[in-house]
Amino acid sequence: MTNQVQPIFILPENTQRTSGKNAQRTNIMAAKMVAETVRTTLGPKGMDKMLVDSLGDVVVTNDGATILKEMNIEHPSAKMIVEIAKTQEDEVGDGTTTAVVIAGELLKKAEDLLDQEIHPTVLAKGYRIAAEKANSVLNEMAVKVTDKDTKILKNIALTAMTGKGAESSKELLGDLTVEAVRTVTEDNNGELIIDSDNIKIEKKVGASVEDSELVAGIILDKEKVHAGMPRMVKNAKIALIDSAIEVKSTESDAKINISDPEKMQAFIDMEENMLKDMVEKIAKTGATVVFCQKGIDDMAQHYLAKKGIYACRRVKKSDMEKLSRATGGKIITNLDDLTPNDLGNAGIVEEKKVGDEEMTYVKECKNPKAVTILIRGGTEHVVDEVKRAMEDAIGDVASALKRGKVVAGAGSPEIELAKKLRDYANSLSGREQLAVQAFADAIEIIPRTLAENAGLDPIDILTEMKAAHDKGKQWAGIDVFSGKIIDAWKEGIVEPLMIKTQAVSSAAEVAVMILRIDDVIASSSSSSGESSNMPSGMSGGMGGMPPM
Fold it and tell me: What is the DSSP string of 50-104?
């Protein structure tokens, strides 16, 4: 008589488990779906997405990182793809769509090879080899660039903005970008240090995008604290104060009993005198403008106004740091320590009405290491999209200068890279060769997508491009407006090398990671209280153990 063995349950009820081929298929499918979503936004003819969140806020954009962030993706593998976009955004500031599309295509090509019974670890190894080779090929192709090559830098900014909402005024915005990045660049023993955070982007609705401007200094979203203060201060000496210009209250709960009305008056006078002394200390240093990170007492405002000192309160910490970098002033916590040496300088500090709000301009700083770009536009959505385009452009120009290398765009480096990878694949033996070839095919998704988004026939375009590259034209790319093959470098379509290397590396890493997963175990969100309706024999301390 055969013993009937009761099945053993290791995992709690409601746990979903997919393993083997199924798990791989599902993961690859999810990743491909994400890539497909952003794929249509690639290139100058890419379309935009309208994203509406649960509160009804609308975002119209074709910035890959923004789309994926706003989409609120649930699937775990799809989340990994979103992380690529995040890394790309943090590291380079642009090329998010490129990275995601390449990752999706790598997985799609891998699927075909998995169907041919090629083991995922072989694929993973092949992809790793290919990614390394791809980076060295890209490095060899790249052209050196320095902060003197303003024309190339401007072309990088223009390339980044093409196809974005900022395209109509890209000439002006391109100039602003290059000017801003070059201003905040610092040379540290021959190494260029660029912190994009030192370029503050303020946006204000009203006027047109053409009215956007670069200010050699900082624009604060603040107004002066007192009507009696001057609207404009020339050759301003600026005090940056990190403590409140108010009478300090005692730390512990202390009560002050005043029995005599005269003493009351004396107490009030005393407070006023303390505030007056504070203002005197500031005025004595020769300061004509005060930016305070904390509050300024009403009485102190009155005294400051009487001295003709312009003041703003509750300035953000990040803005205080930028003011310090722009004006050369030091941020002081203790008023007693304020000396004339701590003051910053600016040619003009003035209050201006921008749109329907008052803003404080600190401009004409001598050698500002922080600047502001003020973006204008007809509506909130326009301004937001121009800001995103500007952030991409600034990131591109900065990373081109940091690495000092650039490549042409328009799909030319991808075709050249695919060609070199195929030659390299032929030198390999074993099954990795197939993976490297698949990698080369996957890289071609970028020019293919550029052509598709422009309504051109991708097969014809790719064939023409490959023919041009075989003749030794390294920068032969696609002009999506005319459908012709052009020399992308001569046409001024330039991108930083870092976009390409980062996109290829992170796409390959994530593709490898997803390919190596053969089992997905998803726990249920149900509470442990539900275990009471388990079949008998499974409840109890050793749930799932067969009866002895």
Answer: EEE-TT--EEEE--HHHHHHHT----HHHHHHHHHHHHHHHHTSS-HHHHHHHHH
The Cα–Cα gap between 199 and 192 comes to: 16
Is residue 103 within 8 A of residue 510, CB to CB? The reply is: yes
Cα distances (Å, whole numbers) of residue 38 to 34, 48, 191, 429: 7, 9, 36, 36
Q: Domain 16-144+407-521 adopts which CATH fold?
A: GROEL; domain 1 (1.10.560)
3-class SS at 386?
Answer: helix
pTM: 0.72
Q: Is 297 a catalytic residue?
A: no
pLDDT tens digits for range 373-405: 888 877 877 788 888 888 878 888 888 877 778
Domain ranges of the chain: 16-144+407-521, 146-216+368-403, 219-248+259-366
Selected catalytic residue, list 66, 97, 183, 185: 97
Of 37, 61, 63, 372, the catalytic one is 63
Kindly state the percentage of the chain with pLDDT values over 90: 0
Q: Is 97 a catalytic residue?
A: yes
Model confidence pLDDT, tens digit, residues 467-512: 888 887 878 888 777 878 888 778 878 888 888 888 888 888 888 8
How many Å apart are CA 176 and CA 371, to the nearest integer? 11
pLDDT at 537: 39
Q: Which of 37, 66, 96, 159 is the catalytic position?
A: 96
Q: Active site includes 63?
A: yes
- Selecting among 48, 94, 384, 392, the annotated active-site residue is 392
297 closest CA partner among 317, 282, 276, 280: 276
Q: Report domain 219-248+259-366's class.
A: alpha beta
| Interval 105-144: pLDDT, tens | 888 888 888 888 778 788 888 888 888 888 888 888 878 8
Residues 6+ apart with CB under 8 A from 142: 405, 406, 407, 497
Is 57 one of the catalytic residues? no
CATH architecture for residues 146-216+368-403 = 2-Layer Sandwich (3.30)
